[in-house]
Design brief:
Shape: extended
Helix content: over 70%
Strand content: under 5%
Number of helices: 40
Number of strands: 0
Radius of gyration: 39 Å
CATH architecture of one domain: Alpha Horseshoe
CATH class of one domain: Mainly Alpha
Largest sheet: none
Structural class: mainly alpha
Distance between the termini: 88 Å
Length: 750
C-alpha cells in the first residue's frame, strides 16, 4: 500500500536540514521514519545509508548499501560506499570486488577518470586482483603513463607466474615496448625465463608516487645492481632476447646446426656471459655465427666481447650487424663509438656518439618537436665537420662517453633536458649533445638558471653579471647569447636586442642549425615587424627547406608590412611572387585563392576596379563556390559600366549551389541581396523560382506577389500576366482577386 507522500516529503526535508547541521544520528532516525512510508525509495535509502555511515554505524550502512546495489544496479555510488565500509572492516577482497564492479559501471557511462580511480582503489584494497591490474595496465599503456604501467606489470608478473608463466612473460614484453630501457622489467624477464620466482612488488599504497626506488628493488628483487650504463642495458636486453629464443619455436634457421644444437649453444653463451666466463661465451657465439646464425642479439654480444678483448675491427663488424635492430640501436651506436675512440678515429667515434645521444634525446621531447630536434643534430654534426677542430671533437667525444657511461644517466638526461628547455625560446628545441660538450656544463647551466631567475625578478644587473659569467665559460653556446638579447629587451634596449639576435641567427645559419636560425629571425620580426630584410631572408630559407606553407604565410606578412608603409606597389609585387609559389603549397590550404583575395582587396583599396574584377574572376574559376568573389564581381561590374554582367555572375553562383545540392545557401544569398535591393525584378524572379523548385509554396507566393507589382509599375504588363498565371496555378487563398486582376489586364491588352 502506498505511503503518505506529504509525510514522506516533510521527513526528507527535515533530514536534509539535519545533514547540513552535521547531526548524523538524528538525520538517520528521520530517514528511517521516511522509509516507513516508502521503503523502496532509492534516494531516501541513499540518504539513510550516508547518515548511518557518518554516524559510525557501518554495519547497518553496509546493509542499506547492499539493498541499493540490488535496487539501483546501474548506480555506482552504493558500490563505492560499500567498498569503503568493507575496507574499513578489513574485508579487503570483498571491497576490491565492489570497486571493480563500480569501475565497470563507470566504463559503461564513459567516465574514464572515475573508472581508473575505482580500479586503483581496488588494487590498494587487494593487490592480488589481477583483473584490476590488467585493466589498469591497458589504460596506463594507452595514456603513456610508463611508471604506473611498469608497476602494474610487476604485479601481474608476480600474480601470473605460477599458473600462467607465459602470460607473465608476454605482459612484460608488451610493456617493454613502451619502456625498452627499464631495468626492473629486464630483471623480471630474466627471473621468469629462468624459472625463478618473482617476489612481491613493493607496496601499492601510493600509486600516484614515483616508481619503486632503487633501494627497494635491490632489497626485494635481489638482482645484480651493476647494470645502468648504456652498454649494460643493451647487453642485458641481448641476454634477455637470447633467453627468450630458447623457448621460441620460430628461431632463425641455422644451416649448419640442428635446433637442439642452437639452443644448447645459446644456453651456454648466456650462462657463461652471465657468470663472467667470457672465453666460453665468446667461443659459443663464434660457433653460432660460423654455423650461419644471424641474430642481432648474438652479433651485439659478440661485438661487446671482441671490444673487451680490444679486437676492435671484429667488434665493429658485428656491432654494425646489430645496428639495424631498434632494440640495439642505442647500445650499438655507443659501443661503436667506443671502438672508434679506442682506435683514435675521433670523427667516426663522434658520429656514433652523437647518434646515441640523439636516440636518447628524441625520447625526451614532444612528438611535434622530433623533426626539429633531428635537424638540430644534423646541424651540429655538419658544423663540427665544417670547422675541422680535432680538439673540440675529441673533447665532445670524451664528454659524451663520460655522460652515457655513468650509472643513472637516464635521470641525468631528464634533468639536463629540463634545464636546456628553460633556455629555449617558445617553439624551439635545443639538443642535449651541445650542452654536454661544454666544459663545466653543470656550472654553466646553474649560472644560466640563476640569471633567468634574476630576469624574472627584474634584477637586471644581477642577471647581467650571471650571464656574463656563463658566456665567459661557454662563449660559443648561443642560447646564452639569446638570454642576453632577452635581457636587453627587458631593459628597454630594443635596438641592442635586435642587433644581438641578428648576429645569433647568422651564427645558427653558419652552423647549419636552420630551425634555430628561423626561430631567432622570427623573434626579430616580433620586435621589428617592418624589417624587410629579415622577412625576405626567412622566406628564402623556408623555401630552401621545402616549408612552402610557412614561406607563403610569411609572404603575406611581408606584403602587409609593405602596405603599412604605404608601398602598395611593393605589396603587389610580393603577392605576385607568392602567387607563383602557391601551387607548391598544401592544396587544402587554397593558397592561390587566398592570395588572389588579398590582391583583389589591394586593388579595391587603390580603386583599381578592373584589376579587382580580374582577380575575382580568376577566383570564381578556381573556386566556383567562393561567395565573396561572386558578390565582389556583382558590386564591381556596375562601376565599370558593365551592369549587364551582374545577374549572369549571380546565376553562375546560384547554379553551382543548386548543382551541389546546396539550395539553402542559394536562398540565403538571394534573400540578403533582396534586402539590399527589394525592388529588383531579376532578384525577385529568381527567389520565386528557387522557392518553387524547393517546394516552399508560400515563400514563392510572397515573392511572386511582389514581382507582379514591380512588373506592373515598370510597364511590363506581359510579364506581369505570366506572373499572375504562376500565382493562380499555386491556388492561393485569395485566388479570386488574382483572377480578377488578370481579367482586367487581359481586357486592357485586348
Amino acid at each position: 500500500m502506498a505511503g503518505n507522500r506529504q509525510r514522506f516529503e516533510q521527513a526528507l526535508q527535515r533530514a536534509n536540514e539535519l545533514i547540513w547541521q552535521n547531526k548524523w544520528p538524528d538525520a538517520a532516525e528521520v530517514y528511517r521514519r521516511a522509509l516507513q512510508e516508502f521503503p523502496e525509495d532509492s534516494s531516501a535509502l541513499m540518504g539513510y545509508a550516508w547518515a548511518l555511515f557518518n554516524a559510525g554505524d557501518l554495519q547497518t550502512a553496509a546493509e542499506i548499501y547492499q539493498r541499493l546495489v540490488v535496487l539501483a544496479p546501474k548506480d555506482t555510488g552504493p558500490r563505492e560506499r560499500l567498498a569503503e565500509i568493507l575496507a574499513q572492516q578489513g574485508q579487503n577482497e570483498a571491497a576490491a570486488t565492489r570497486y571493480v564492479e563500480a569501475a565497470d559501471l563507470f566504463q559503461a557511462q564513459g567516465l574514464a577518470d572515475k573508472r581508473i580511480a575505482a580500479l586503483e582503489s581496488a588494487t590498494r584494497c587487494n593487490p592480488h586482483s589481477d583483473r584490476a591490474w590488467a585493466d589498469l595496465l591497458k589504460y596506463y599503456q594507452e595514456q603513456g603513463a610508463i611508471d604506473k604501467a611498469i608497476r602494474a606489470t610487476l604485479w601481474l608478473a608476480h600474480l601470473y607466474q605460477q599458473e600462467h608463466n607465459s602470460w607473465a612473460i608476454e605482459v612484460c614484453r608488451q610493456t617493454q615496448r613502451f619502456a625498452p630501457n627499464d631495468r626492473l622489467l629486464g630483471q623480471v624477464m630474466l627471473l621468469l625465463q629462468s624459472g625463478r620466482p618473482v617476489p612481491i612488488p613493493p607496496s601499492t599504497s601510493d600509486l600516484k608516487g614515483d616508481l619503486i626506488e632503487d633501494t627497494c628493488v635491490e632489497t626485494e628483487l635481489e638482482i645484480d645492481n651493476e647494470a645502468g650504463s648504456v652498454t649494460e642495458i643493451a647487453r642485458q636486453r641481448a641476454l634477455e632476447s637470447l633467453a627468450e629464443a630458447l623457448f621460441d619455436d620460430e628461431r632463425p634457421a641455422t644451416p649448419g646446426l640442428s635446433s637442439e644444437e642452437v639452443s644448447l649453444l645459446i644456453g651456454q653463451a648466456v650462462d657463461a656471459q652471465t657468470r663472467g666466463d667470457l672465453e666460453t661465451a665468446l667461443s659459443a657465439y663464434e660457433r653460432l655465427v660460423a654455423a650461419g646464425t644471424s641474430m642481432p642479439s648474438v652479433h651485439f654480444n659478440l661485438g661487446l666481447l671482441y671490444k673487451e678483448q680490444m679486437r676492435f675491427d671484429e667488434a665493429i663488424a658485428h656491432l654494425e650487424l646489430s645496428l639495424p635492430d631498434p632494440g640495439f640501436l642505442l647500445g650499438s651506436h655507443f659501443a661503436l663509438g667506443e671502438c672508434y675512440q679506442a682506435q683514435g678515429r675521433f670523427d667516426e667515434a663522434l658520429e656514433h656518439f652523437l647518434e646515441a645521444v640523439k636516440v636518447i634525446d628524441l625520447t625526451t621531447v614532444r612528438r611535434d618537436q622530433v623533426d626539429d630536434l633531428i635537424r638540430v643534430y644534423e646541424g651540429l654534426a655538419q658544423n663540427l665537420v665544417n670547422t675541422g677542430e680535432p680538439e673540440r671533437v675529441q673533447h665532445l667525444v670524451n664528454s659524451l662517453v663520460g655522460f652515457l657511461g655513468q650509472r643513472g644517466w637516464e635521470e641525468e638526461v631528464l634533468k639536463a633536458r629540463k634545464r636546456i628547455d628553460s633556455l629555449a625560446r617558445s617553439g624551439t628545441v635545443l639538443g642535449l649533445a651541445e650542452i654536454l660538450s661544454l666544459s663545466g656544463s653543470e656550472d654553466v647551466l646553474r649560472s644560466a638558471a640563476m640569471a633567468q631567475e634574476y630576469i624574472r625578478r627584474k634584477k637586471t644587473y644581477s642577471a647581467l653579471e650571471e650571464l656574463s659569467y656563463s658566456i665567459g665559460k661557454a662563449p660559443h653556446y648561443l642560447p646564452l647569447h639569446s638570454m642576453l638579447a632577452q635581457l636587453y629587451i627587458e631593459s628597454g634596449n630594443l635596438e641592442g636586442a635586435i642587433e644581438k639576435m641578428r648576429v645569433i641567427a647568422q651564427a645558427y645559419e653558419t652552423r647549419g642549425q636552420i630551425p634555430l636560425a628561423l626561430a631567432t629571425y622570427q623573434q626579430i620580426l616580433e620586435l621589428s615587424p617592418l624589417d624587410f630584410t629579415i622577412h625576405t631572408r626567412m622566406i628564402e630559407m623556408l623555401i630552401q627547406r621545402g616549408q612552402i606553407d610557412d614561406a607563403l604565410g610569411w609572404y603575406l606578412e611581408l606584403a602587409d608590412a609593405y602596405y603599412q608603409l604605404a608601398q602598395p606597389e611593393r605589396a603587389q609585387e610580393t603577392y605576385t611572387e607568392a602567387l607563383r609559389l602557391a601551387p607548391r603549397g598544401t592544396p587544402e590550404k587554397r593558397w592561390t585563392v587566398r592570395i588572389l583575395h588579398r590582391m583583389a582587396d589591394l586593388a579595391m583599396q587603390r580603386l583599381d576596379w578592373k584589376s579587382a574584377i580580374k582577380h575575382y574572376q580568376e577566383i570564381t574559376r578556381l573556386a566556383p563556390d567562393d561567395e565573396r568573389a561572386h558578390l565582389g564581381l556583382m558590386r564591381l561590374y556596375p562601376r565599370i559600366g558593365r551592369a549587364h554582367l551582374v545577374i549572369p555572375a549571380l546565376d553562375q553562383l546560384l547554379k553551382h549551389y543548386i548543382a551541389t545540392q546546396r539550395s539553402e545557401k542559394a536562398v540565403v544569398i538571394l534573400e540578403d541581396l533582396i534586402r539590399e535591393q527589394p525592388e529588383s525584378i531579376p532578384l525577385r524572379y529568381r527567389a520565386a523560382q528557387l522557392y518553387l523548385n524547393t517546394g516552399k509554396r508560400q515563400k514563392a507566393l510572397e515573392h511572386l506577389d511582389v514581382l507582379g507589382d514591380l512588373q506592373l509599375e515598370a510597364g511590363q504588363q506581359a510579364d506581369a500576366i505570366k506572373t499572375l498565371d504562376a500565382i493562380i496555378a499555386l491556388k492561393p487563398a485569395n485566388i479570386e482577386s488574382y483572377v480578377s486582376l488578370r481579367q482586367q489586364l487581359t481586357g486592357q491588352s485586348q
